[in-house]
Design goal:
16-stranded antiparallel barrel; two-stranded antiparallel ribbon; 416 residues
Length: 416
C-alpha cells in the first residue's frame, strides 16, 4: 500500500533561511582572512601549517523505514556536521594530516552529539612519485573515496555499493540458511521489523577509514596503491581504530590505475580480509576462528572528463565466506554523471544497482538478498567559493521488501 510522502513547508523555509545566513557569513573577504589566520608558513619553506574545515547542515525527508546508512525511526532528520582538517607539510618529504568530526554519528542519525578523530596519517615521500603512509585513513579501493567529502561529492549520500546493507552480520554467524535469509529480509522472511539494521554490513562502509599502512605512487601513465588494514572493507566505523581492532586478522587492498590521456582514468582494485569481529567467535563452528572467513572484493572503476561533463562508474564483485552456508556472492555497480550548467550551477544523475547470488536452501537455491536499484538526481549551486547548496531526490526499489522508496535531502556546506 503506498505511503504518503510530503515535505513540511516550514522545514523548507528553514533551509532557505539558513542558506541566506550561511551566505552572509561566507563572504569571500571574511573567509580569506580566516584562511590566512589559520595558516602558518615558514619564510624559508621548511614547513607549512594549515587548519581548515567544512560545516554541513543536512536535512532528510524519509519515506520510512530509512534507507541505507541513515539511522532514524523518524520521517525527518536534521543532521549537522563539523569537520576540522589539519595539514602539516615539513620540507618536501614529510606530510601529516588529521580529520576531526563533530556530529551525531559517522552516518546520519538521531543520536546525541559526539566528537571523533576519524582520520590521521603520517606520509613519507622518499621520491616525488613514491609515498609511504601509516595511520587511520581512507581505503585506496575505487575512485569515489577520492571525492567523497561534502564539497566534492555532487550528491549528498554515497553510491549504493557504499551504503546498501546486506544480510551479513559481523557480530554473529548464522546457524542455518534461514537465519541468513531472515537477516537479509528475503521474501517471506521480511516481517517489516528493521531493528537489526545496525547489525548488517554493506560491501564497503563509506570511505572505510581503517588503520594500517599504505604504499602508493605513479610510473608514467600508471598509478598504484597497496595497503594493509586492520579490518575488511565491510567493517563498521567502530572497528576502524587500531585501539579497538588490532592486526590479528589484517585485510589487504590494492589498486592499479591507468590514464591513457587527459580525459580517462581507469582502475582495477582487489581486497581480501576477515569481516567478523571478536564478538562473533562463540557463534562459529567448532575448531574455526574469525580468520577463516573472509570478504573478497574485485572492483573496476573509470572516470571521464570532457569540458563541462564528468562521468564516473564503479563495479564490485563481492564474496562473503559464510559459516555453515558457503559463499554468498553479490554484484553492485553505479554510473554517475555531473554536468556544470554554469560556473556556479551543476546537475548530477546516478544509477545504482545491487544483485544477489544464490545459496542452497534445502533442495533448491535461493537469493540471499533482495535485488535493489536506485536512481539519484541532484542539483547544486555554489554561491561563493566557500558556500555550496545541494538538493537531491532518490527513488529506490527493493524486491519483496517493504522499505522506504523516496528520499529527499538538502545540504548546505560552508568551507573555511
Amino acid at each position: 500500500m503506498p505511503r504518503s510522502f510530503s515535505i513540511p513547508v516550514r522545514v523548507v523555509a528553514l533551509i532557505l533561511a539558513l542558506s541566506v545566513m550561511f551566505r552572509f557569513s561566507a563572504r569571500a573577504d571574511f573567509l580569506e582572512k580566516v584562511h590566512d589566520t589559520l595558516s602558518l608558513n615558514d619564510p624559508q619553506d621548511r614547513f607549512h601549517f594549515q587548519l581548515s574545515g567544512l560545516a554541513d547542515l543536512e536535512t532528510y525527508f524519509i519515506d520510512k523505514p530509512a534507507p541505507g546508512l541513515i539511522f532514524t525511526d523518524r520521517d525527518f532528520l536534521l543532521n549537522p556536521r563539523l569537520r576540522l582538517f589539519l595539514d602539516l607539510q615539513i620540507g618536501s618529504k614529510i606530510y601529516f594530516f588529521a580529520q576531526t568530526r563533530v556530529d551525531r554519528g559517522f552516518d546520519p542519525s538521531d543520536n546525541g552529539a559526539q566528537i571523533r578523530l576519524d582520520e590521521y596519517f603520517l606520509r613519507y615521500s622518499p621520491a616525488t612519485n613514491v609515498h609511504v603512509q601509516i595511520g587511520q585513513f581512507a581505503t585506496v579501493v575505487g575512485n569515489w573515496v577520492l571525492r567523497h567529502d561534502s564539497w566534492q561529492n555532487p550528491f549528498i549520500n554515497a553510491p549504493l555499493p557504499y551504503e546498501n546493507l546486506t544480510g551479513i552480520w559481523d557480530t554473529s554467524a548464522p546457524d542455518e540458511t534461514d537465519d541468513l535469509l531472515e537477516w537479509g529480509h528475503v521474501g517471506e522472511y521480511d516481517s517489516g521489523d528493521y531493528s537489526d539494521k545496525y547489525l548488517r554490513l554493506p560491501i564497503i562502509w563509506g570511505p572505510s577509514y581503517a588503520s594500517g599502512i599504505a604504499v602508493s605512487g605513479s610510473c608514467g601513465r600508471f598509478d598504484y596503491a597497496a595497503e594493509m588494514k586492520n579490518v575488511a572493507l565491510a567493517s563498521r566505523p567502530e572497528s576502524w581504530s587500531v585501539t579497538q581492532t588490532g592486526f590479528e586478522h589484517p585485510a589487504f587492498n590494492g589498486r592499479v590505475g591507468f590514464r591513457p590521456n587527459e580525459m580517462w582514468n581507469l582502475g582495477l582494485s582487489a581486497s581480501g580480509g576477515s569481516y567478523f569481529t571478536s564478538e562473533a567467535a562463540p557463534s562459529l563452528p567448532a575448531g574455526r576462528g574469525i580468520g577463516d572467513y573472509h570478504e573478497f572484493v574485485l572492483a573496476q572503476d573509470l572516470a571521464f572528463a570532457w569540458h563541462h561533463l564528468q562521468l564516473w562508474a564503479e563495479f564490485f564483485e563481492t564474496r562473503f565466506q559464510v559459516p555453515r552456508i558457503g559463499n554468498a556472492d553479490t554484484f553492485s555497480y553505479y554510473f554517475e554523471a555531473k554536468y556544470k550548467i554554469t560556473p556556479q550551477l551543476f546537475g548530477a544523475l546516478r544509477w545504482n544497482q545491487q544483485l544477489f547470488g544464490t545459496i542452497r536452501d534445502e533442495e533448491s537455491r535461493t537469493k540471499w538478498g533482495n535485488d535493489i536499484w536506485r536512481i539519484d538526481a541532484a542539483v547544486g549551486y555554489r554561491f561563493t567559493d566557500y558556500l555550496q547548496g545541494k538538493l537531491q531526490y532518490s527513488f529506490s526499489h527493493q524486491a519483496s521488501v517493504r522499505e522506504g522508496e523516496n528520499l529527499v535531502a538538502a545540504q548546505v556546506t560552508l568551507k573555511f
